[in-house]
């Protein structure tokens, strides 16, 4: 380790209030954006969505993309998440900018369906 | 429902930036305190600890108790978590007030051990 571990973050854990700003990369290592927040199941404690802001790459700001957790993998070397999604997949993806969606089952099926996943997963 | 659902929160999900302040009760319905933050496993997306601030009941302020997630159950009616812990269990519990602990495996065994649980759970 060449830098000190941030408060509220270790190699394994991250505090819910430090989630925002975690970087997101594509598999080539290009920086796509960053995490805005996680949506956590209150009962199971499992993160269901990571909401990401993809600013730079698409040339649009403040648009939030809810991604099913299983799309993400954590890359300890880069200290961020890797998502294997091409630009066209993101362009047609469910997103919002002003106020949160309802996060109900209909919305979940829409989001998961877009990424070729079945909801519920469990 | 008699009140509107808060933004970033539904019956099922809560946003990582809205976790703070969620109330914690004992099984009798007494309010113990509130949640300060979750500690989330970056890879699995599973909450490992809920950190709770128990202010009023013990007469001490700003002390944070990391609790293994499995100690909590969510009570939709009260909109908060229920923890079945007597006062003496909390009085001797691992806690901190100034800066975060290291959150390493030694610390995890200490916390889980206090509550009669084995770490790792998975």
Write the layout of secondary structure elements.
The structure is a homodimer of 122-residue chains.
Chain A: E1 13-15, E2 23-25, E3 31-41, E4 47-53, E5 64-68, E6 72-75, E7 80-83, H1 87-91, H2 105-114
Parallel strand pairs in A: 2-7
Antiparallel strand pairs in A: 2-3, 3-4, 4-5, 6-7
Compact summary:
The structure is a homodimer of 122-residue chains. Chain A has 122 residues and is an alpha+beta fold.
What does this structure look like?
2 copies of one chain form a homodimer. With 122 residues, chain A is α+β, with helices and mostly antiparallel strands. Chain A has one domain: Roll (SH3 type barrels). Chain A is built from 2 helices and 7 strands, in the order βββββββαα. The first copy, chain A, has helices at residues 87-91, 105-114, and strands at 13-15, 23-25, 31-41, 47-53, 64-68, 72-75, 80-83. The termini of chain A are far apart. Mean pLDDT of chain A is 85; it is low at 1-5. Chains A, B: This is Sporulation protein YlmC with PRC-barrel domain.
């Amino acid at each position: 380790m060449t830098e000190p571990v941030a408060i509220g973050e270790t190699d394994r854990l991250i505090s819910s209030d430090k989630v925002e700003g975690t970087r997101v990369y594509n598999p080539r290592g290009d920086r796509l954006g960053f995490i805005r927040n996680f949506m956590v199941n209150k009962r199971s404690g499992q993160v269901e969505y990571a909401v990401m802001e993809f600013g730079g790459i698409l040339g649009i700001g403040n648009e939030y993309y809810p991604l099913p957790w299983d799309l993400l993998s954590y890359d300890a070397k880069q200290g961020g998440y890797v998502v294997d999604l091409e630009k066209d997949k993101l362009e047609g993806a469910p997103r919002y900018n002003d106020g949160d969606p309802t996060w109900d089952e209909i919305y979940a099926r829409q989001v998961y369906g877009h990424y070729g996943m079945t909801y519920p997963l469990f």
